[in-house]
Amino acid sequence: MTLTIDASVGGATSNSSALTIVHLHGPCSPLHSPHAGAPPPPSHAEILERDQSRANSIHRKTSTTSPDPTPTSKQAAASLPAHTGISLGTLNYVVTVGLGTPSRPYTVVFDTGSDLSWVQCSPCRAAGGCYEQQDPLFDPSQSSTYAAVACSEADCDLLDADTGSCSTDGDSRCRYKVLYGDDSNTYGDLARDTLTLSGNDKLYGFVFGCGEENSGLFGHADGLLGLGRESVSLPSQGAAIGYGPGFTYCLPSSSANGYLSLGAASSPAANAVFTPMVTRMDTPSFYYLDLIGIKVARRPLNFPATTFAVSGGGTVIDSGTVITRLPRRAYEALRSAFVREMVNRNYRRAPALSILDTCYDLTTGHGGKAGAAAAAADVPRVELDFAGGASVVLDAAGVLYVAKATQACLAFASTGDDTSIAILGNTQQKTFAVVYDVANKRIGFAPKACS
């Protein structure tokens, strides 16, 4: 793989870069379309149904074999603005990167549970072969630095046997296909081109997928930025040529900006607390950590000490899952304690919402605006305890999923059994700086970190 950095122009910091994160459906999203005729954002029920598909996919991937947990193992960096993806038809978070020469902007979902980055490419393989996106498709013929990867090249070996194959068209192109397990998929050529991060930070020879057939739950985003742990992911490719082997993000509320920092720009905040990063050898793409307990109103919940044991599955931290999933007994203990505290606060119960079964009416004394009600609500303190002494106290936005002021739900759900892995979703990560310190084998959390 021939991949190089150029951070020498525009005052960029060598070996560092940052991107802005926004919510896919939020007003700050570049894909927000308030004009007449624009597709409406998905309903809360649709968002939660899609989220269940995502969780089901992760559970299928992590339940095929017995786990073999081992610990995982300051350099260059890049930082990108990050946004919520509300306007794009998914409750994920998006960043805008440049691709090709000349560089053109593409807004992509970033995903810690995926390795291969890809964009939709022109021409699509067949009519209906690409889903609708707001921006123009990436056209390889318009980039002077685009090159398809051949089967004989080492870059083709970055794909595993389930993902990569050789073209049957007689041209020996390296082809990829990724099935996400929720009816989403992408298929096309493995390729190299110049990836532009913040400012003028460029990664030459970045390996990505040029998707000719793509479908599924990507909203109107242009593709996906893979932040997983395999060698084809953006952090791994960057680390191979001088970027630090880690990254940090802060996921904002739907009306604000966050950031995604790569490499040295992801140095931890002074107030971050850390827990060891864990690897399961059967699913090495995922980032695992060791959740050992939960407190509600400062009181520890009562469930077996082995509930979150890595030897029994462990806990994945995932940027693409919205609602945190807990094993059945842990969820039932959390729900019981939460209900008790909400009764003490005189909140009225509200109807369940899709997978969320514990909902309340927050309107008393707080008006009828959902955001204002959630911010002012007297929500029980919920605390997540991790190995190594790290304790993360959630704010109201991390405890409640607010559909409207009269329907705010406990933002956790059960896996339905006691053997499936727990998933720490993005609702509980919001407004924290989440530090993936790969070099030091740890994951950190710093509160109130988004700008």
UniProtKB/TrEMBL annotation:
InterPro entries per record: Aspartic_peptidase_A1 (IPR001461), Aspartic_peptidase_AS (IPR001969), CND41-like (IPR033873), PEPTIDASE_A1 (IPR033121), Peptidase_aspartic_dom_sf (IPR021109), TAXi_C (IPR032799), TAXi_N (IPR032861)
Keywords for this protein: Aspartyl protease, Disulfide bond, Hydrolase, Protease, Signal
One Gene Ontology term from the biological process aspect of the record: proteolysis
Record flagged with keyword ATP-binding: no
Keyword Hydrolase: yes
Feature: compositional bias, Low complexity: 63-73
Active site: D111, D318
Region (Disordered): 54-78
GO MF terms, alphabetically ordered: aspartic-type endopeptidase activity
Pfam families xrefs: TAXi_C (PF14541), TAXi_N (PF14543)
Domain Peptidase A1 span(s) in chain numbering: 93-446
Highest taxon, organism lineage: Eukaryota
Record family assignment: Belongs to the peptidase A1 family.
Record-given protein name: Peptidase A1 domain-containing protein
The organism of origin for this protein: Leersia perrieri
